[in-house]
Amino acid sequence: MEVLSSRILVRPADPERSRRFYRDVLGLAIYREFGPPDDPGLVFFLGQGFLELSGRSGGAAAETSALWLQVRDLSAEHERLRAAGVEVVRPPRHEPWGLIEMWIEDPDGLPIVLVEIPGDHPLRRDQR
Q1: Residues 71 and 120 in one domain
Q2: Distance (Å, rounded) from C-alpha 116 to C-alpha 121?
Q3: High-pLDDT (> 90) share of the chain, %
Q4: What number of CA atoms fall less than 13 Å from residue 75's CA on the CB side?
Q5: Is beta strand 7-10 parallel, antiparallel or unpaired with respect to 49-53?
Q6: CA–CA distance, 103 with 61 (Å, rounded to integer)
Q7: Nearest-5° angle of CA 45, CA 99, CA 92?
Q8: Residue 80, exposed/middle/buried by CB under 10 A (0-12, 13-18, 19+)?
Q9: What is the pTM of this model?
Q10: Disulfide engineering: 110 pairs with which of 46, 92, 106, 127, CB 3.0-4.6 Å?
Q11: Residue 63: what are its φ and ψ, rounded to 5°?
Q12: Contact at 8 Å (CB) between 74 and 120?
C-alpha cells in the first residue's frame, strides 16, 4: 500500500467549541475550510498529515483513539496551554522510552499526547 496522504477525522459534539480549541488554543494552522460558512468543516495541518473537524457526534471520543503531536519545546507548550486555561491531564515527564510527554484532552475528551523528542533520542539519529 502506498499512502499518499493521511487525515484523522474528528466528529465533535460541539463543532464551534472544537474549532476554537484546535484553531485558537492549540494554534493549529488551517489547511482548508469547507461547507456552510456558519458551520464549516475545517482541515488543520498536522505535521505530515491532517486533522479534519466536520460533522457532529452524539457522544464522547472513543476510548481507543488519541492524537499524538510532536512539538519542539514541550515546556513552552505546557506553559502556553496552562495560561490558555487548558487542563493538563498529565504534566510533562520523561518517559522510560526516552520521550518527554504531556497529556491533555480536546473538548470532547479525545486524549492528546504532546511529545518532545530529546536531541539524544534514537528517533533523532539518521539510521541510514
Answers
A1: yes
A2: 10
A3: 52
A4: 2
A5: parallel
A6: 15
A7: 85
A8: middle
A9: 0.76
A10: 106
A11: -70, -15
A12: no
Please check whether residues 91 and 121 belong to one and the same domain.
Answer: yes
98 and 49 in a common domain: no
Question: Locate cell 504534566: which residue?
Answer: 91
Structurally, how many domains does the chain consist of?
2
Give how far the C-alpha of residue 76 lies from the chain's centroid of Cα atoms, to the nearest Å: 16
Domain that holds residue 94: 60-128
Which grid coordinates are listed for 128? 541510514
Q: What is the pLDDT of residues 47-101, one digit of tens each?
A: 889 989 888 877 655 556 788 898 999 999 999 999 999 999 999 999 988 889 9
Q: Which residue's entry shows cell 507548550?
A: 77
Let me know whether 45 and 100 are in one domain: no
86 in the same domain as 105: yes
Residue whose grid cell is 486555561: 85
In a shared domain, residues 35 and 7? yes
Q: 114 with 74, same domain?
A: yes
Strand order in the sheet with 111-116: 67-70, 111-116, 100-105, 90-94
